[in-house]
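dude i think i finally got it to work??
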Amino acid sequence: MSVFTPTTGLLGGSLIGLSAATLLLFNGDILGASGLASSLVVSPRKTFTDPSQTWKLSFMAAFWLTSRLYIAYVDKDALKDPSMNSNSEIPIVSSLGFIAGGFLVGFGTRLGNGCTTGHGICGMARLSIRSFAAVGAFMATGIFMASGCSPTCPFYPYLRTTYDSVTERLPTESTLAVGTALASVMVGAALKGLLRKAPDDASAEEKEELENDKRKIIPSIVSAAFFSLGLVISNMTISSKIYGFLNMKGIKEGTWDPTLVCVMGGGFLVSFISYQWVAGFNLFKNSKAIECPLGQEKECGKFNVMTNKTIDNNLVIGEALFGLGWGAAGLCPGPAMFLACAGYPSVLMKWWPSFFVGALLAEKVKAIQNKATNKKNN
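look at this
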């Protein structure tokens, strides 16, 4: 049974919202965990070499370091699930469940352009009709999968196992080493971007643009720290908290856990307030609303906020598939990033590789769609 924890849920959710607000107000960027992660494989060259992408590397480096430091020095038991200790027969995700879940989340979030952070915390906060549709889609299928995957479900033997039958459930020295190596790569790439200098023949405009890119680094580091802390404090890194909400059978059984509502609510509220200070996205009149991010120079600084209002097949299908993967493995990209940092083998070695494969495949599908559309228009 998952215990309702409204205080930590609201606090953690507010920190996640503060993470989104920091990126928005200082950098003009959107907090999207799935987009940040998938960019590493969908467009690796651009992510690692384009100065405008350096903030993403610094964000991920800071996120990994914050996560590791929190587990090592603040709360070593933060990722332990009390529900598992009280009942060794509680069904948990199998190896195939992690693989299937990771693939569906990777494919779905890339096709639908967002996950619980991009659509749920940021999109709904700016009252995007697309994001409301996306959240409705992945919540519906997430609830369907988590509630329906019971012992009578034909997929149950493949997606679930029992706690005492899992041999690789805890971090090992090798997986911790992998996590450390990945964090080191991110830190190295971010430092390279920070030390990057404009070519001697660069124009004044190009030099200023590079400086603006560098100005994004510190806010992205602060945002990443807030995001990491928000996830672990809210207990969204513990899968039983996710299942406790998505499994609607718990309402009848008296075990339903609405903590996720507090997390999403806290994140939404803080993020919504931040949009009231952005010109063009504020719901209420605000004479002090800004047209350029606080950390950027007006000459080349801008808000990179989506304005697309179209609810298309890719959005609905993609987010529905994401929800199925979320309900199958109990993970969305943010918590999965934290668990990978902590060296959890099934997440690091099964969920994430499958996520990247799914994201790459979705990108191929979108490329084919675009090619067909262009051919039709011509």
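The beta strands are 91-93, 160-162.
im so relieved honestly
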